[in-house]
Backbone:
């Protein structure tokens, strides 16, 4: 099937909520006023590691207006994970609503609900805590040593592989086809490092909890995972799932930070205690110190290469810092290998050694790219180093080795997310076309010549990198949809898929509209409410277009069948002779009836029934999108400043359901990745206190900093995707780090192994300039 | 500074007289009321967002006497006798949709939309001051607004397009 005849899909349909958002409609979690609402506040630990010996809340409770003070003594103690993942979650159960131990600066100590914010603040100050300060550990390699402080010494935690050595997750695997490195002409080994990074969604995490008229708990929350929130809150607070309703309004960005139960449990506990509505909204500082981060990584990569450009062996040894809790510890670590190792053919041996290690620092979690960002920084830097080693053009070296259509990889089967993966072959790939388009757009060959013999302080260089990601988690993720028809031939589409600003509501409407032969605006999307919309794992793992999109397509096809059945009676034609087009059911001979006639017939006149259907989708493969990124930089060898002059990102996401939104996803991902490359890093004092927990000190890019970024969509047709679509949201963030590192090497000959590439590091690398081998 | 960043309240009252989106408004307020609290809590206008509470992200931008200000950094009392325009009060010349609202939608400049009202207010202030702003002027003029979704490419195109419309 091709995309030529599509009427709604693959079109630049306007994002359906854009106008309301541009007009400031009150659609976010905090945009409702609820009478009698209490203000929740959390007391944060100032210590990186301490046991609470005594906690006295009597003075705090006396503050006028204070309605509840919670400590570990009066909340249920249920080990669970905050990671919003499918059940059973592959993350260790090492978290508690409140505990008698704090494990990082910014860990929860107590929570207060009061009638005014001032009373809540005053109460926090009056909670008396006596701590036993414990030795803390901040370095992953120290944390795994015998005798290091044990961060999770509690006995009831579950699924921690080696708590005594602070190992929150580990995974090793090997494909062996002979002696290691025996065929290699060169063996290249380097270590790449990435620090703590923050998501910086502009809407801070916000939750409002209340009771409805049945005494059920309503959780209105800025989440990517409404159904996982319902399940995990039920588990952590020991209340039945049926007593909870989770409502996801519009979300002000997430990027993985909202794939977590971050505030829902404690806010709900305050509502359960007081019987009143409670709101907790993070300040920006709280978002920095106590939400989630990207796992800092140390990646050691050892590869063998032959002079003819064959990659003989690859050993990837990754150590992630999961911080104080193991949220996404196993899966991010596994994705750092499973999304990178299949990218190029490795002739002989592959080994992956992965660990996620606890430290007394903030909690890591899901972050756009999900391990692939860490992995590709290493892989794509090493690709250039290997190419230089064998004196092959790095573009040609990649072209020779990347995975081809119809090919598989032993890695797909060996490494899934938290468990064994699924065997698959590549069913669509536009990488070659992406590379060609990128070379042309950046004028690669001509500029390479031009920059060959530079002198002076300013040096220009070109770099590139190739990436892949996934489209959902195969044989894990599931999505479903419900679609019903209205009298005027419009449709309500109810999905559990969580649009967090990505535009998924719009693209899902486009998919349904394409099947039903109507305009996108005739499909009214509602997302997401655990009472009203069917199950969906949520917005993560680049799953929505591929998994939820397929669910919507199947649902619409069912509804189309029901419409045709009614129209066949109205028109007295065979169902096989009917098709849906332009808001009508049209027969081969030209006879037609409107959708509104069909709806009215079914609702009021004949064999009365509601035309409504549901369907689910679950996939056996995760077709990777592919990308080729190209960058031109100018390095000031005097100051060490890197300026990005031009950035081209070519993405094969299959059929772009909405090219405008797909470009927007990729533009944003690339700029976020450029921030990671040049400026972003969370800093800590020697006792683990965050030093730059604000937008003033943690630098994300603004309009004046932005380089020229161009996204070029490379159309392919993925046979397993809805109308040929694959995912697009994450892949773009993986490119800038290696592409810029390669461009800097090209410009000044110095290699950067540790991000961000600050002027100090650039100067140091230039000073230590030795041929990299 | 909405209620989440609130630490202290002085109970001294004052009587505020100002214009909000063209209408005369009179309210008795605590002197500690910040402008964003006045807008979101007293006026119930929720289009003005708070992303940081310290004047860094620009999600709370409003126009005061035609100038863009971070409403998290200004006190309500400073609005005395002045004209406040929030995103809800922004209108085109014909009283309908403002050109920026239209072009932000058309150019795909709205993703999550949390920063959008602030970006539109900043763009409006910029174009009022400099209707012939170049791309570089626009980029410089919007540095007070952070957006993590769009990468700003489509934001800049939306402002360029609005220039041509007005």
Residues:
């Amino acid at each position: 099937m091709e995309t030529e005849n599509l009427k709604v899909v693959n079109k630049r349909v306007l994002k359906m909520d854009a106008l309301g958002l541009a007009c400031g409609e009150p659609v976010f979690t905090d945009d409702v006023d609820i009478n009698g609402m209490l203000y929740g506040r959390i007391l944060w630990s100032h210590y990186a590691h301490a046991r609470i010996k005594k906690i006295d809340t009597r003075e705090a409770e006396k503050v006028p207006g204070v309605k509840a003070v919670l400590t570990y003594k009066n909340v249920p103690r249920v080990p669970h994970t905050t990671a919003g993942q499918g059940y059973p979650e592959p993350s260790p159960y090492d978290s508690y609503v409140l505990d008698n131990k704090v494990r990082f600066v910014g860990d929860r100590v107590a929570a207060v609900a009061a009638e005014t914010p001032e009373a809540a603040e005053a109460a926090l100050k009056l909670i008396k805590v006596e701590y036993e300060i414990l030795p803390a550990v901040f370095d992953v390699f120290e944390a795994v040593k015998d005798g290091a402080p044990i961060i999770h010494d509690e006995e009831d935690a579950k699924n921690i592989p080696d708590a005594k050595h602070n190992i929150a997750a580990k995974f090793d695997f090997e494909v062996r086809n002979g002696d290691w490195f025996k065929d290699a002409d060169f063996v290249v080994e380097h270590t790449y490092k990435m620090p703590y990074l923050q998501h910086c969604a502009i809407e801070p995490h916000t939750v409002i909890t209340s009771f409805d008229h049945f005494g059920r708990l309503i959780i209105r929350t800025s989440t990517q995972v409404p159904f996982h929130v319902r399940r995990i809150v039920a588990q952590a607070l020991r209340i039945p799932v049926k007593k909870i309703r989770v409502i996801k309004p519009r979300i002000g960005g997430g990027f993985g930070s909202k794939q977590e139960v971050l505030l829902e449990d404690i806010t709900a506990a305050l509502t359960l205690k007081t019987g009143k509505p409670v709101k907790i909204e993070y300040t920006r500082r709280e978002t920095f110190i106590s939400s989630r981060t990207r796992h800092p990584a140390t990646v050691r990569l050892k590869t063998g290469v032959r002079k003819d450009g064959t990659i003989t062996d690859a050993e990837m040894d990754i150590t992630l810092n999961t911080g104080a809790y193991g949220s996404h510890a196993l899966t991010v670590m596994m994705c750092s290998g499973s999304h990178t190792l299949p990218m190029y053919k490795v002739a002989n041996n592959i080994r992956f050694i992965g660990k996620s290690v606890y430290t007394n620092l903030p909690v890591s979690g899901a972050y756009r790219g999900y391990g692939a960002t860490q992995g590709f920084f290493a892989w794509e830097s090493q690709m250039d180093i290997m190419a230089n080693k064998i004196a092959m053009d790095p573009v040609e070296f990649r072209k020779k080795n990347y995975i081809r259509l119809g090919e598989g990889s032993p890695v797909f089967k060996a490494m899934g997310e938290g468990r064994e993966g699924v065997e698959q072959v590549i069913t669509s790939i536009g990488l070659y076309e992406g590379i060609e388009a990128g070379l042309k757009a950046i004028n690669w060959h001509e500029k390479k010549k031009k920059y060959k013999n530079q002198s002076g302080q300013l040096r220009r260089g070109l770099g590139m990198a190739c990436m892949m990601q996934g489209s959902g988690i195969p044989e894990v993720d599931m999505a479903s949809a419900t679609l019903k028809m209205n009298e005027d031939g419009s449709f309500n589409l109810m999905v559990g898929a969580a649009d967090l600003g990505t535009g998924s509501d719009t693209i899902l409407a486009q998919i349904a509209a394409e099947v039903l032969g109507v305009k996108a605006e005739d499909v009214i999307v509602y997302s997401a409410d655990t009472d009203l919309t069917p199950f969906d794992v949520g917005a993560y793992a680049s799953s929505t277009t591929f998994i939820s999109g397929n669910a919507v397509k199947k649902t619409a096809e069912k509804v189309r069948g029901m419409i045709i059945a009614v129209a066949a009676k109205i028109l007295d034609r065979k169902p096989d002779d009917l098709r849906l087009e332009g808001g009508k059911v049209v027969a081969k001979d030209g006879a037609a009836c409107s959708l509104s006639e069909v709806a009215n017939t079914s609702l009021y006149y004949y064999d009365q029934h509601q035309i409504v259907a549901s369907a689910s989708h679950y996939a056996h493969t995760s077709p990777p999108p592919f990308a080729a990124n190209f960058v031109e930089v100018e390095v000031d060898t005097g100051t060490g400043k890197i300026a990005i002059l031009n950035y081209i990102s070519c993405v094969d996401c299959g059929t772009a359901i909405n090219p405008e939104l797909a470009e927007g996803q990729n533009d944003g991902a690339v700029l976020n990745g450029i921030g990671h490359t040049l400026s972003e890093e969370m800093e800590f004092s020697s006792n683990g206190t965050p030093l730059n927990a604000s937008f003033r000190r943690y630098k994300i890019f603004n309009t004046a900093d932005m380089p020229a970024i161009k996204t070029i969509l490379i159309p392919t047709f993925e046979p397993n995707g809805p109308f040929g679509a694959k995912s697009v949201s994450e892949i773009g963030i993986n490119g800038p780090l290696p592409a810029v590192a390669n461009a800097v090497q090209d410009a000044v000959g110095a290699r950067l192994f540790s991000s961000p590439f600050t002027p100090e590091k650039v100067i140091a690398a230039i000073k230590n300039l030795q041929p990299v081998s | 500074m909405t209620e989440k960043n609130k630490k202290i309240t002085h109970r001294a009252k004052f009587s505020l007289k100002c214009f909000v989106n063209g209408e005369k408004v009179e309210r008795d307020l605590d002197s500690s009321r910040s402008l964003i609290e006045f807008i979101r809590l007293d006026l119930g206008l929720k289009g003005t967002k708070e992303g940081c509470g310290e004047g860094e992200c620009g999600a709370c931008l409003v126009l005061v006497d035609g100038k863009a200000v971070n409403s998290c950094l200004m006190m309500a009392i400073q609005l005395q006798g002045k004209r406040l325009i929030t995103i809800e009060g922004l209108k085109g010349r014909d009283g309908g949709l403002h050109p920026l609202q239209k072009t932000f939608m058309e150019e795909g400049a709205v993703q999550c939309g949390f920063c959008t009202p602030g970006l539109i207010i900043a763009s409006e202030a910029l174009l009022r001051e400099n209707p012939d702003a170049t791309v570089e002027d626009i980029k410089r003029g919007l540095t007070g607004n952070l957006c993590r979704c769009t990468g700003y490419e489509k934001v800049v195109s939306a402002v360029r397009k609005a220039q041509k419309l007005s």
Summary: The mean pLDDT of chain A is 97. The longest helix of chain A spans residues 544-571.
